[in-house]
Amino acid sequence: MPKHRLHTHLENWRKYQHLWRQDKTVILGKFVAKSPSCSFFEIKLAKYAKVAADVLDVPRDKSVEFLQISSNQLVSSVHSEASAWVTAIGEAMIWSEKERVLSLHAKIDNWSKILHQPPDTLENLKMVLNIVGEILTAGMVMELEYLDLEERTRTRDLYKITNTDEDRARTFTIRTRLKILFSKLFHFVIV
């Protein structure tokens, strides 16, 4: 009987062994390579955050017949490893979006530069009108892009993953810059 209870207690801890079996870098590299949306990142974050929180609720001491089993160190290790996964996922999230943020800013810069060119020749006018069409066509896609990036930032805040002020500003200024660009665009089209 005591051997069975001891075995059951040990089996309860085996559900956490996946935390150490996987190489974070490889697993997250493959995950990021699939270009997951914010919701997929959040599913992974929630999974590991739940493990980190749930393990703290596990009784740390267990009596099995004449044995007193102390799991303090094990609880601490599981919590620490699950929290490390949350941090690693958050860092992978940041890494995966940096290029997207920079690309959106570059695209807005390019569009603004072309829109500010005076349409004094037929070629310049064609170029400006092509950019106007491109902006109007890409407007909804750009909006979805910056909304996803903003949601990623809020998700990291939710899981207490550090967002630098610079990264936060870079992400949240995309919306403003696009609104300014659209107002200039509509002013250009009306004039």
* Strand arrangement, major sheet: 1-2
- Tally the beta strands: 2
Kindly state the mean pLDDT as a whole number? 87
Q: Outline the low-pLDDT stretches.
A: none
What general outline do the C-alpha atoms trace?
Answer: rod-shaped
Count of helices?
7
H/E topology pattern: HHHHEEHHH
Please tell me about this protein's structure.
There is one protein chain. By secondary structure, the chain is mainly alpha-helical. It has 7 helices and 2 strands, in the order H-H-H-H-E-E-H-H-H. The protein has a two-stranded antiparallel ribbon. Strand 1 (61-64) and strand 2 form a beta hairpin. It is rod-shaped, with a radius of gyration of 26 Å. It starts with a helix and ends with a helix.
Key features?
191 residues; two-stranded antiparallel ribbon; single chain; 4% strand; 7 helices
Describe what is shown at a glance.
This protein is mostly helical and 191 residues long. It is 80% helix and 4% strand.
Write the layout of secondary structure elements.
Blueprint: H1 2-14, H2 18-21, H3 24-33, H4 38-55, E1 61-64, E2 67-70, H5 72-115, H6 122-158, H7 165-190
Helix pairs in contact: 3-5, 4-5, 5-6, 5-7, 6-7
